[in-house]
Design brief:
heterodimer, A: alpha+beta, Gyrase A, domain 2, Cyclophilin, 7-stranded mixed β-sheet, 3-stranded antiparallel β-sheet, 6 helices, 12 strands, elongated, B: 306 residues, alpha+beta, 7-stranded mixed beta barrel, 20 strands
């Protein structure tokens, strides 16, 4: 486990991405897996093929003279269409109340900035993004939902994400994205990668359906 | 080509190989046989690659029918298996004739049985593995993460590479006392001294909440005194402690990153042993050094060397 930072900060990303790239090169085929997160990189190598001393040597080599990747080199920019509506975003109204504004303003604030993808985890293609405007931040639900539909767009504290598949989840849901975030037939599988940037774009119901979205409504909060 | 048809299944029996690698950065979990030792033996008995695709059968509830003659090997839990009503002991290679029925009904010892076939069961890999992960909808017979269902047809080679006999001293006794070995690490130094003492000196009980993702242990509440963590990668076998103080061992289908403090990780052999424990089982934990764990692991792997 490589610990490089102590706090979540967008400024970490170019360094983490640069370290990941160098480590991939240095370890080569001896790297079984690497799990980047907000402040760390977990390296998985076969301890029977590669000694710990050699692994440390690779790490040292990778971190020596490291230069951050330029944002433009480190990822793609995506525009993700979202249909923001209480029937698919059952926490949208509560979030507006909490922020003391209209739902339209919540939507406007959610769409107002580019979010870096800090890491993928929890489920295939689930990108942890942030940070949202502090006024629309909200704690996770006290009781997670058993079933969050595919494409649901949620907020937890100042993070935001899209659920790539049906799963349990405790994030505040505000809308739904019609695009497939994870597709086992797609090259690279996941639409989002760490270091990518995402801008959410509000679309209406008709456009959501045209893009292949499923508008099955959810029960409001218990 | 030989073939088995699934006649009856509760949906939990599933195809597993050695797991999915090179994709953890996408949020995709590992998968693979939980009791990898039993899986290795089943494949070894038939001369297959040790991590060839097998059926992992938890608890029972599976009936298969042979649609052609073939050779199979059964290891792991004793699930009261029967071949056309005749009791079939695990830890051996056996021939199955076209029309014969193979049933797994209930656990008598252990939890998960492993059925290997000559050459391994055939299925198209998804993200480079056949490992079934239901939560992610990946792997399995049709690539969609589903367990075995009635009507599924499982094909395999007509002839095994070899037919071996199990060394009797290598057959585990799942009714023996369970001691699991923990490589102490991660945030262990930030747990209270009393918690670390209790960790290794009290019995733990395997909870009902025990599955391919995680196995929860109940016992004295362990107290973490450090700061909240920022989510980070979780290795196989990590022992995490959520705020209720009850440790969870993270298994093959674990989430890829998580933010609960960890005490370290269980050794691979201990994970295989844990996979054969039923809820209610009493468990002891024992610390082990890196060097000893490495030596034990090498000795275990040497058993399957040609």
């Amino acid at each position: 486990m490589l610990r490089l930072f102590d706090v979540i900060d967008e400024a970490n990303m170019p360094w983490l991405m640069a370290a990941a790239e160098r480590l991939h090169t240095d370890f080569g085929a001896q790297l079984i897996d690497m799990v980047p997160s907000y402040t760390t990189l977990m390296l998985h190598y076969d301890g029977l093929q590669l000694s710990e001393a050699q692994a440390r040597e690779y790490v040292l080599q990778a971190l020596t003279g490291l230069q951050p990747l330029a944002i433009d080199d480190s990822g793609q920019r995506h525009e993700l269409p979202v249909w923001y509506h209480p029937s698919v975003g059952p926490d949208l109204e509560a979030l507006a109340q909490r922020a003391g504004c209209s739902t339209a303003q919540v939507i406007e604030r959610h769409c107002s900035r580019d979010y870096p993808v800090f890491t993928l985890g929890f489920a295939p293609g689930f990108g942890y993004m942030g940070l949202v405007d502090p006024s629309i931040a909200a704690p996770r639900l006290a009781t997670p939902r058993q079933r969050v539909p595919q494409g649901s767009v949620g907020i937890a504290e100042r993070q935001t994400a899209v659920y790539p598949l049906v799963s349990p989840g405790g994030w505040n849901l505000i809308g739904r994205c019609p695009l497939a975030l994870f597709d086992r037939e797609r090259e690279g599988y996941s639409l989002l990668k760490p270091g990518d940037r995402v801008r959410f774009v509000s679309v209406d119901h008709a456009e959501f359906l045209r893009l292949g979205g499923d508008d099955a409504s959810m029960e409001p909060n218990p | 080509m030989s073939m088995l048809r699934v006649e009856h299944s509760l949906g939990f029996a599933q195809l597993q190989d050695g797991g999915r690698f090179g994709v953890r950065h996408l949020g995709v979990t590992q998968g693979g046989a939980l009791d990898w030792i039993a899986q290795h033996w089943a494949n070894w008995l038939l001369g297959n690659p040790l991590d060839a695709c097998v059926i992992e059968i938890p608890l029972g509830g599976l009936t298969l029918k042979a649609e052609a003659d073939g050779w199979l090997a059964l290891t792991g839990a004793d699930l009261d298996a029967k071949l056309d009503q005749q009791p079939l002991r695990p830890w051996q290679v056996f021939a199955i004739r076209s029309g014969q029925q193979l049933t797994f009904t209930q656990p008598r010892s252990g939890v998960r049985a492993y059925l290997a076939a000559a050459g391994g069961f055939k299925a198209n890999p998804v993200l480079s593995a056949v490992a079934t992960v239901m939560r992610e909808g990946l792997g399995g017979l049709h690539g969609d993460g589903k367990g075995l269902k009635p009507g599924n047809q499982l094909t395999y080679s007509a002839q095994p590479a070899v037919s071996r006999k199990m060394p009797s001293e290598a057959i585990p006794d799942y009714k023996s006392l369970v001691t699991l070995q923990l490589l102490v690490g991660a945030q262990s130094s930030q747990f209270s001294g009393q918690s670390l003492f209790q960790l290794f000196n009290q019995h733990w009980t395997l909870d009902q909440r025990a599955d391919r993702m995680g196995m929860r242990l109940t016992g004295p509440a362990l107290r973490y005194q450090g700061d909240a963590l920022i989510s980070e990668g979780i290795p196989l076998g990590a022992v995490q402690v959520p705020p209720d103080g009850q440790p969870i061992v993270l298994m093959n289908d674990r989430q890829t990153i998580g933010g609960y403090p960890r005490l370290g990780a269980l050794t691979p052999a201990s994970l295989a042993r844990l996979a054969q424990c039923a809820p209610g089982q009493k468990i002891r934990l024992q610390p082990i050094s890196q060097a000893q764990a490495r030596q034990d692991h090498l000795a275990l792997l040497a058993r399957w060397e040609p």
